[in-house]
Amino acid sequence: MLPELGWMPRLAAALLAVGLVALFVARAIRKDRREYARFRRYRSTARRQAMMRRWLVESLALFGGTAVLVLLLTFPVVAPLLTVTQAVPAVAWLRDALAGGLGAGLLIGAGLGLVALTIVGVRSARREGGIIMVGDIAALLPRNRPELGWGAALSVNAGIVEEGLFRLALPALLVIVTGEPISAFLLAALVFGALHAYQGWVGVLATTVVGLLFTLLYVASGSILLAMVVHALFDLRTLVVIPMAVYRVHEVPGSLRFPKPLAIAAPAVEPAVEVESRAETSLEPPSQT
Hints:
Elements: H1 7-41, H2 45-86, H3 89-98, H4 101-128, H5 145-178, H6 181-194, H7 200-221, H8 224-247, H9 260-269, H10 272-279
Helix pairs in contact: 1-5, 2-5, 4-8, 5-6, 5-8, 6-7, 7-8
């Protein structure tokens, strides 16, 4: 059973929930879309890495900090919310069906299926010269080895802080307002999808569905750690595995930065073709080094 709360705590929770949702959605529509449009125009890997680093820090501070704060305020509600949700007839039926060997078999089958689809997709992308993407995420794919590291960091961070916020903290806050667990989880998943407005409406729809699947995984398993790991692996597949397998970005060292005297003297010593071939190994024009 959910703890009984008076009208004052419910009002405070409602005001906090409305404020947070408004902040997240407004930020996604205005700030994130504007920054992503600028990020897509970047050709300098230094600028791209700086933006990735900024996104990582902001995500840790905003989403991670909000998750910690809300969990401190709603901690007595978190465990009862999961228990009440698992007692919903449809959820209880699913948990019973997944109990024992069936659940383990489905988990293993899903993992193998994801690996198989990734291999097929990579082979197809190599033949066609590109990969099929859901939503406007092409600019996010790392283009060299240094960016690959930031892609991995962003993926792991997203798995931890986004699951902690949208599957654990925000539903606990929303259920105080709604008094009903399913609506709280659904609203949190919708907010999660809205945060991806920079990917266009297709991206919002896709991430909402993915958020619902992560919610189902958390509720059915009872483990937020499992949801975090699956979320991180899902993002790592997009931002690390596919760029490495299709575009071999791990073999691209990043920008070449020659000392100034060598850069000036290079045209007189080496053929122009050789200088151009070195420049092509970088995603950053030589004039910016």
